[in-house]
Amino acid sequence: MDAETRATPDDHQALRLWLRLLACTNLIEAPLRQRLREQFEGSLPRFDLMAQLERHPDGLRMGELSQRLMVTGGNVTGLVDQLVAEGLVTRAATSRDRRALVVKLTARGKESFEAMAGEHERWIVEMLGGLPAAERERLHELLGGLKRALTAA
Amino acid sequence: MDAETRATPDDHQALRLWLRLLACTNLIEAPLRQRLREQFEGSLPRFDLMAQLERHPDGLRMGELSQRLMVTGGNVTGLVDQLVAEGLVTRAATSRDRRALVVKLTARGKESFEAMAGEHERWIVEMLGGLPAAERERLHELLGGLKRALTAA
């Protein structure tokens, strides 16, 4: 019972491909969300937000942060408020532009993110481990082609 | 700027594969959600719910319906209330078990769903059309292997 349940043999091949892609994404995303919640009192949008900050040590403006988040469902302002309250990020005006609030990870935020990221990577490696490495590599390549086709369109 | 922005060369190959899979799903899902909203005043959870009912002409109980929905973010009771108000579904007790409410598409609901489903398929065919058919076929096969590995784990 997943997204593919919707597919019928007379559907176009592109539709069957999409429903399978969605089914695979959901099969990975659902347990990931649950584990993040259980083990870190975190959530996927929160993890995603901290991941973006970790890649930008100089911080990101609120607007940039919203744009970079791919996991939907997270209210960025609310998430940032919560992380500020927990001492994991700071949000401050820059000297150049007093109106633009820049969000940065604190040292504790960086530490907390790294622990989550390590576990996250272990879960993914474990979940995808059932597929032989050569097939994973081929799948990665083909999805690269799909991505190029999607962004070119 | 997408889920893959998070990937670094020293990440495990499984993690890079997952981030690319997520990026592709988002690249298809985001415009789909937007088009459904714009053209049908619908939403992806609503479409998904009606798709499940369309496959079950005898109706589904509320509990079964919740289990079958893969697109998260939809409150099933709220969605059903709304569809009942619009005359697109009915929700009624069965003669066998007065406590179990069964949800069914009305004739108008079926018609409305079919119009959405046709457009939905055309959008998918258009979006994935940039990838040659042979690559789509190979991707479909490889994702089938991934799905089997994920459900076996």
Present the secondary structure layout.
The structure is a homodimer of 153-residue chains.
Chain A lengths: L12 H28 L3 H11 L5 E2 H7 L7 H10 L3 E5 L7 E5 L1 H22 L4 H20 L1
Antiparallel strand pairs in A: 1-3, 2-3
Short description:
The structure is a homodimer of 153-residue chains. Chain A is 64% helix and 8% strand. With 153 residues, the first copy, chain A, is mainly alpha-helical.
- Any idea what the CATH superfamily of chain A is called? Winged helix-like DNA-binding domain superfamily/Winged helix DNA-binding domain
How many DSSP E strands of chain A?
3
- Please bin the fraction of helical residues of chain A: 55-70%
Chain pair with largest interface: A-B, 63 and 64 residues
Describe the sheet with the most strands of chain A.
3 strands, antiparallel
Q: Which strand order do you get reading across the main beta sheet of chain A?
A: 1-3-2
> What oligomeric state is this?
homodimer
CATH architecture of chain A: Orthogonal Bundle
Poorly predicted parts of chain A: none
For the residues shown, what is the average pLDDT of chain A? 87
Q: What structural keywords apply?
A:
homodimer, Arc Repressor Mutant, subunit A, three-stranded antiparallel beta sheet, 6 helices, 3 strands
Written account of the structure:
Two copies of one chain form a homodimer. Chain A has six helices and three strands. Chain A has 153 residues and is mainly alpha-helical. The first copy, chain A, has one domain (41-152): Orthogonal Bundle (Arc Repressor Mutant, subunit A), CATH 1.10.10.10. The radius of gyration of chain A is 19 Å and the shape is globular. Chains A and B meet through α1, α2, α5 and α6 of A and α1, α2, α5 and α6 of B.
